[in-house]
Amino acid sequence: MGAEVVIEGLTKSFGRQAIWRDVTLTLPPGEVSAMLGPSGTGKSVFLKSMIGLLKPDRGRCVINGVDIVTCSEHKLYEIRKLFGVLFQDGALFGSMNLYDNVAFPLREHTKKSETEIRRIVSEKLEMTGLAGADKKLPGEISGGMRKRAGLARALVLDPQIILVDEPDSGLDPVRTAYISQLLIDLNTQIDATILIVTHNINLARTVPDNLGMLFRKELVMFGPREVLLTSDEPVVEQFLNGRKRGPIGMSEEKDSATMEREEAEAAAGHSDGSPDEDVRGVVAQMQPSPGLPERVGARRRMDRVMRILHTLPAAAQEGIIESLSPEEQRHYNVRPSHGAPVAAPARHGLADTQQIPRVTGPVPSQHQGELPADQVARIPGGWSGNPGNPGNTGEAPRPGSGYPPRNGPGGA
Ligand SMILES: Nc1ncnc2c1ncn2[C@@H]1O[C@H](COP(=O)(O)OP(=O)(O)OP(=O)(O)O)[C@@H](O)[C@H]1O
């Protein structure tokens, strides 16, 4: 199983330019997480800080018990071997063919024989659909193939953690769907912890188990995908729907006067071309390709999420329970409620006559999954108000500390 990554109070600036501050989150082991955020909010800087390519000003990033912010160069070198990184452009060496590009980390970091290297490189090229393309130079292949070659290279050292910077950049929607499928299939096959940085909404809605968002130099939220996908946070609503109207402006943040003017213009019937439809709500998650086994990360994640279900906002609970099969609902002792009116049908795509699913009570201990407490997502104390929550730290919630910071459990 992939490694857990625990990030606490991470803060980064360049000179006087603050990039983000007090970022606190845990990447659950073997799960797929994604970080959203408008351009320039520091998503790439975040990835680089996680592997020690950039040094945060303060905070911790703990992997296998080692804090990479403060550890020695030697330790950092060792920890970096746990990572596979897919940079935006694949970061391939232009003068080397794909075979040598993919073989490069093995020749640099291991003493493996050329026979062993050939076996590993062939396996990774096969996994990424590049078998037969090993003699090609990066300049001779498409952007999608370059991404896949970058991914093949990121896999050769059997990483426990895979960081992916904008897998969709430069790709059409169809190629983006293929690379998304590849990431889910990889997670199924090697059970690595994956963090994807993206502003592709479709990918964010369908691929990850967990979703977070950076904005205004802070982590707006991070948690199970259903929390962000059903969030009422204006910045999340604007971002998921790709609207101009909202707190995000051309240079990231709008002033309140501009926002008020836009609201007034919209009320007066002015169309700015933004879509009317609200895409928020929980949609089906991408599954492994047919023929692959069950994704154990998804099963572990479901157990973990059901343990913290009662701490999540009502809309997220609703989305999670609705996505369970009847057998799973019985297993976790939850069921859709009957007779309760829907609180906000328009937001979640439910008809007026449909019912809000409800948790029928605390999840019984025999159904709480097998995860030890330290592998359960951390919920800031005071948000859930539930001291029994295994992830509850007992601290007051801080802005950007991992889950909806302002609105409390209901998120409203
Ligand atoms: N090495 C550096 N030195 C100084 N400033 C930097 C450095 N790297 C990044 N920045 C600044 O940090 C900010 C965040 O950059 P970053 O590339 O992380 O944003 P991003 O969210 O990944 O954007 P995009 O989605 O457009 O790729 C930018 O203002 C950028 O200019």
From TrEMBL:
Keyword field: ATP-binding, Nucleotide-binding, Transport
Transmembrane regions: none
Region (Disordered), start-end ranges: 244-279, 356-412
Domain ABC transporter: residue ranges: 5-241
GO molecular function: ATP binding; ATP hydrolysis activity
Bias kind Polar residues: ranges: 356-368
Top-rank lineage group of the source organism: Bacteria
Alphabetized CDD domains for the sequence: ABC_Org_Solvent_Resistant (cd03261)
Compositional bias annotation for Basic and acidic residues: 251-261
InterPro entries cross-referenced by the UniProt entry: AAA+_ATPase, ABC_transporter-like_ATP-bd, ABC_transporter-like_CS, P-loop_NTPase
Xref: PANTHER family: INTERMEMBRANE PHOSPHOLIPID TRANSPORT SYSTEM ATP-BINDING PROTEIN MLAF (PTHR43023:SF6), PROTEIN TRIGALACTOSYLDIACYLGLYCEROL 3, CHLOROPLASTIC (PTHR43023)
UniProt name for this protein: Phospholipid/cholesterol/gamma-HCH transport system ATP-binding protein
Organism from which the protein derives: Amycolatopsis saalfeldensis
